[in-house]
Amino acid sequence: MTMGTCLLRWNALSPTLGGIMNADRTKRKPSDPGGAMDIGVGQKAQRSMTVTQDTVRGYAKLTGDYNPLHFDIEFTSKTRFERLMAQGGITTGLLHALVAM
Question: Is the N or C terminus of the chain more exposed, i.e. has fewer CB atoms within 10 Å?
Answer without folding.
Answer: C
